[in-house]
Design a protein that fits this description.
Distance between the termini: 27 Å
CATH class: Mainly Alpha
Mean pLDDT: 84
CATH topology: Lysozyme
Low-confidence stretches: 1-31
Strand content: under 5%
Number of domains: 1
Oligomer: single chain
Number of helices: 9
Shape: globular
CATH architecture: Orthogonal Bundle
Length: 214
């Protein structure tokens, strides 16, 4: 498989990571109705904060304070990419996706493993997924969010980076509202707050992505 010099360098780093962690295959995905966030009134201050978080324009490139943190990221990337290969066969697409997930989850102070589980349940890692209620993309963003905190362009919700940014910012908002209770926040994300089916499905899917450096 051909690739840019940077890709080849990353592949070499992966060999050591794969040997060290001994990753397995991705487990099957359970079908769960997803993408049903309910539109709720937002205080002006909350709307402004969410809009500012969405508009942040720095590129999703991880920055590390020391070598060990960078090596931990590469170990995670190697293992997670191997598990995701069946879903996303193209190397570059897979790396860009995982790099963006890593960046956006840490920016939003989220558990990366939990978010990968959520994406598995919401869209089965399909970029152009549309739910029965019109939610879009990897994290199944409802179109009303583009109007509430974005620029109103619903089509942009199919853009990988935009979709992951919206999803992580929205999940962080729900966690803040629920005082970091992930069960209730996940239920609110799905529009089924208080019911166990969706949070339990996300927790189960997240186990597929568990990694010591995740």
């Amino acid at each position: 498989m051909s690739g840019a010099p940077g890709d080849l360098w990353l592949r070499r780093d992966w060999l050591g990571g794969l040997a060290a962690v001994g990753v397995g295959g991705l487990l099957g995905t359970r079908s769960v109705h997803a993408g049903g966030q309910l539109e709720e009134p937002l205080a002006d201050s909350v709307r402004s904060a969410l809009s500012a978080a969405i508009a942040h324009s720095e590129p999703p490139v991880p920055v590390f304070s020391d070598t060990e943190r960078r090596l931990a990221y590469l170990r995670w990337l190697a293992a997670t990419s191997d598990r995701l290969r069946r879903r996303k066969p193209d190397f570059q697409t897979r790396i860009e996706f995982l790099q963006t997930v890593w960046y956006e989850t840490r920016r939003a102070r989220l558990d990366t493993t939990l978010v990968l589980g959520l994406i598995q349940v919401e869209s089965a890692f399909r970029k152009f997924a549309i739910s029965r209620v019109g939610a879009r993309g990897y994290m199944q963003i409802m179109p009303f969010w583009a109007r509430l905190i974005g620029d109103g362009d619903v089509g942009r919700l199919f853009d990988m980076r935009v979709n992951l940014r919206f999803g992580c910012v929205i999940l962080r908002h729900y966690l803040d509202r629920e005082r970091d209770d992930t069960f209730l926040a996940l239920g609110r994300y799905n529009g089924s707050r208080g019911r166990a089916e969706y949070p339990n499905a996300v927790y189960a899917a997240a186990r597929n992505w568990a990694h010591p450096d995740g």
